[in-house]
Write a structure and sequence with these properties.
The structure is a single chain. Strands 3-4-2-1-5-6 form a 6-stranded parallel beta sheet, with helices on both faces. The protein has a single domain, classed as Decaprenyl diphosphate synthase-like (Undecaprenyl pyrophosphate synthetase). The longest helix has 24 residues. About 40% of the residues lie in helices and about 15% in strands. About 35% of the residues are buried. It is built from 8 helices and 6 strands. Helix 2 crosses helix 3 and helix 3 packs parallel to helix 4.
């Protein structure tokens, strides 16, 4: 399977987005605490990051913590924040050595300490790296991102920096957290759920969706390859029509 992918690298998506769903259900299925489900999910995440970088994926966006996730129990949120700190403390040197640029997309200022400091330090350490961009969505919501972009555009217009004619798709895209990156080619959501859950709404306008039924902690590199091959087999039309039809 990997050989098939390596023989067709030009067909790979340049920007992959992943909704890592199913940690809680995996924990329940295995009669474990939810926190252990999240911790096991980090093992999968490390492998997918490494494989994406090895394959030459330009951008990998992962949905780590949404603005709605604050509604979860205090115990679960606390465990997630601790796990977040641990990941960036332990893994940031490897990411930096591999030339990966870490970008936190979402309201970083709304994150608690010490996570806010750890996240800012991770971005600062890797900001000049030129390899794969790892977008980590934290305290993120797609609608909030669009509102933020609208306010930035309104402010620029109010200050006389732009005219209404300057506002087009490219200008709006440059107001998003993913400024300068290509739109999402492939969105993967594990666990079989089939919805966006407010993730990268604008960037996923023409994305191909793949919904593996496997729960995130069981999402191996082999499962990732299956999703990539599914994408590579599709005929992307971007609203057009196949000439054979």
């Amino acid at each position: 399977m990997k050989k098939t992918i390596q023989n067709n690298l030009s067909l790979l998506p340049k920007h992959v987005a992943i909704i890592m769903d199913g940690n809680g259900r995996w924990a329940k299925k295995n009669k474990l605490k939810v926190a252990l489900g999240h911790r096991t999910g980090v093992i999968s995440l490390r492998e997918i990051i490494r494989e994406s970088n090895n394959l030459g994926i330009k951008s990998l966006s992962i949905y780590a913590f949404s603005t709605e996730n604050w509604k979860r129990s205090t115990i679960e949120v606390s465990a997630l924040m601790d796990l977040l700190s641990e990941f960036f403390t332990k893994d940031i040197d490897e990411l930096n050595d591999e030339n990966v640029k870490v970008l936190i997309i979402g309201d970083v200022e709304g994150m608690p300490e010490p996570q806010r400091t750890i996240l800012k330090n991770s971005m600062a350490l890797t900001q000049n790296n030129t390899g794969m961009i790892l977008n980590v969505a934290l305290n993120y919501g797609g609608r909030s991102e669009l509102i933020r972009a609208a306010k930035l555009i309104a402010e620029n217009y109010k200050n006389g920096e732009i005219s209404l004619d300057d506002v087009d798709e490219d200008y709006l895209a440059n107001m998003l957290y993913t400024k300068g990156q290509l739109d999402v080619d492939l969105l993967i959501r594990t666990s079989g759920e089939m919805r966006l859950s407010n993730f990268l709404l604008y960037q996923c306008a023409y994305a191909e969706f793949v919904f593996p039924k496997v729960l995130w902690p069981d999402f191996t590199v082999e499962e990732y390859h299956k999703a990539l091959l599914e994408y590579m087999s599709r005929d992307r039309r971007f609203g057009g029509r196949n000439t054979d039809e």
